[in-house]
Structure formats: C-alpha cells, structure tokens
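forwarding from the other thread:

> can someone predict this with coenzyme A?

sure thing
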Amino acid sequence: MTTPPQMPAIRVAMMPKDTNAHGTIFGGVILSYIDQAGAFAARAFGAPKVVTVSMKEVQFRQPVYVGDIVSFYTDVERLGNTSITVRVTVRAERYRSPGSDVLVTDAEVVYVGVDENFNKVPIRRPADPA
Ligand SMILES: CC(C)(COP(=O)(O)OP(=O)(O)OC[C@H]1O[C@@H](n2cnc3c(N)ncnc32)[C@H](O)[C@@H]1OP(=O)(O)O)[C@@H](O)C(=O)NCCC(=O)NCCS
C-alpha cells in the first residue's frame, strides 16, 4: 500500500512566490502539496472522487527554502469503509547541498470516497473485485 520505494507522489522546486514574510516557504504551500500527494494515493481505491475530511498531526520539523527540491512521499496507513488514511512525508534536497535529504514535514491526511454527487461511497480494497 506504499508508493514504490523512493518514488515520490510529487516532486517540486520551491520558488520565491511560495515564501512567507520570513523568506522561508509558507506552510500553506507545503500543506497544499501534502493534500494533493495524499489524494493521488487515496484515488487508487475505486471511488469516483476523494475529498479531504481531516489533516492531522502536521509537523513542520525544518524550514524549507527557495530553491529546495521538495518530495512528497505517501503511505496508505488505514482503509475504512469509506475513508482512506494516508501518511505524507515531505523531504527536501537543499539547493546549496545537492543530494541532501532532509525530513521537513509529515502529516496524516484522511480522505473519503464520494460519488459524482459528493455522497459517500465504500472504498474498494485491493482484493475486492473491480
Ligand atoms: C467528507 C464528508 C463526505 C464526510 O461526510 P460525513 O457524513 O460527515 O461522514 P462520516 O461522519 O460518516 O465519516 C465518513 C468517514 O470519514 C471518517 N471521518 C470523518 N471525520 C473524520 C475525522 N475528523 N478524522 C478522521 N476520519 C474522519 C469516518 O470515520 C468515516 O470513515 P469510515 O467510513 O471509513 O468508517 C463530508 O464531511 C464533506 O463533504 N466534507 C467536506 C469535504 C471537503 O470539501 N474537503 C475539502 C476539499 S477536498
């Protein structure tokens, strides 16, 4: 239930437009990518759409800087009836330190499968028939 080893769901370079008043990367930018990365993982379980119901235990462990290449890794932790819980781990390769790999943020995000009318639908486990 994990994306392939070392294969991030999203990999992106941070730009000056992404900064906060301190000149480091705005936490909301990181949260937005976390939400997208987790949704990519959650979409693998058969629901026509997934919506985010909660973001928990978000920890900003280290700042992210302009020029850092930031990777968002996903790990599906729990499958419920309609919900999918995804841990998203965010790691930065520092602009000034090519090859570096710094844990900067992690979070647990819960998605719910919904149909075209945004009504909840049961998710499909890998063993379930298509
Ligand atoms: C997501 C939504 C469809 C859930 O509807 P609901 O009737 O409140 O759903 P329920 O209380 O029955 O919970 C549905 C599932 O979500 C889980 N869930 C609900 N709130 C949760 C929370 N705060 N934390 C973790 N899981 C939660 C429930 O445990 C349940 O899981 P299960 O079916 O696997 O047992 C509805 O709240 C909604 O549309 N929210 C807005 C979503 C949105 O706009 N997101 C932002 C943009 S994507």
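The longest strand covers residues 102-114. thats all i got for now
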